[in-house]
Amino acid sequence: MKKRPDPELENQSRRDFLKISLTGAAGLWLGSRTGKLEAHPASLNDYGPLFTSQPLEVVRVGFVGVGGMGSVHVQNFLNLEGVEIKAICDIVEAKVARAQQWVEKAGYPRPAGYARGPWDFKRMCQEQDLDLVFNATPWEWHVPVCVAAMKNGKHAATEVPAAITLEECWELVETAERYKKHCVMMENCCYDRVELMSLNMVRHRLLGEILHAEAGYLHDLREVKFSNQGEGLWRRQHSWKRNGNLYPTHGLGPVAQCMNINRGDAFDYLVSISSPSRGLQLYAREKIGPDSPQAKERFALGDVNSSLIKTNLGKTIILIHDTNLPRPYSRINLIQGTRGILQKWPNRIYVEGKSPSHQWEDIENYAEDFEHPLWKKLSQKGEGRGHGGMDFIEDYRLIQCLRTGSPMDMNVYDAAAWSSVSALSERSVARGSRPVKFPDFTRGAWKTTLPLGIIEG
């Protein structure tokens, strides 16, 4: 395994690496009416220097974590062709049994169950003949589960964020490279309707050259964090000692794809600032009681964290994390180019020479020309299957890429780069908002990797 580049150095070394990603319309494998997979006449080599695995007619899957999001993915997989759910793992035996019953009710054999404690996923990875391990556990378990899967010859997919520390980010990259397995972070927001439409507009140069983006995760999670079930059992604990952007990828992922991060450009450095911490303490005092144990907790996490990212090509991104204060939900999602600007929340667009002078338009005015092919094909099938359908589309794409031997839309280098914002923002805040360099997880290969194409599905 080759040496990691020093993230503080301006000039980082480059080497050959396991090259994953670029999925475009050209070179995709298509399913025939018989359900058998047929290869496009183009060979896999036509993708260029990109990692692909051997196509799988049936993808055998093991799930680790079948609570809230894990359950959504199990149900989605039961509605996808070419999938067999072979194993279920969770620390709660009743959740394992529930998922097993869903599989049986759908007409498939009962999957093996694993519920002997938090590390039982290792036994599952060792014993079961699987192609993919899907991980929907609390954040601190994402890397251990993915690493165990890859070391045992399985591809890995994980909920967001993929990792918490820089060391964990490198561990995912180096394990994927060593064992030649996909490691995909399942960023569902990249498959939401406006985000897909935005990417299509960018690829058609409607907005000109993209110079700036704004994104974020702005979601009042106070009730969730103090809940006695689900994420409330662990998510609030991250606020005790960590101060930065703890959940960057929902907002960052879609704009990173529009800006060709890791595919022609790369994150260079960031600066990060945090507001004081007030929201969780106030909520605990007023909702739970001034004498409650929760009201006596102290939190390091600033209520609003703002990070500024500069790319190697000089482009800029504003990224915000805001989960402890009262507010309606938003991910901001703004893309600005030399010919126009678009925004989600609210959905609006301005295109020079097309829009009324100095006036926003409804983005729906452009839907006929720029609705993404994936959304056109799958949005109806995805209705009611998680977050307005985007969860179903991301699961469909994961399985389709594995069944056809295509590169993934999001690869291990994206997982590492997008997730690393958490650790880097914490470091910048702790250093008085000094600039902090991003590691180059691709080791220079971003310079020659082609942008993500428009996927026909």
Could you give a short description of this structure?
By secondary structure, this protein is an alpha/beta fold.
Largest sheet: 9 strands, mixed
- The count of β-strands is 17
- Overall shape: it is globular
The overall average pLDDT, rounded, is: 90
Strand arrangement, major sheet: 16-15-14-13-9-12-11-10-17
The N- and C-terminal alpha carbons lie at a distance of 35 Å
Estimated radius of gyration: 22 Å
User: Class by helix and strand content?
Assistant: alpha/beta
Helical segment count: 14
Low-pLDDT segments: 7-48
Helix residue percentage = 25-40%
Q: What fraction strand? A: 15-25%
Layout of strands and helices, then pairs:
Blueprint: E1 30-31, E2 37-38, E3 59-64, H1 68-77, E4 83-89, H2 93-105, E5 112-114, H3 120-127, E6 132-135, H4 142-151, E7 155-158, H5 166-179, E8 183-185, H6 193-203, E9 210-218, H7 222-225, H8 238-241, H9 249-258, E10 267-274, H10 279-288, E11 304-311, E12 316-322, E13 334-337, E14 340-343, E15 348-351, E16 361-362, H11 367-370, H12 373-382, H13 390-404, H14 412-430, E17 436-437
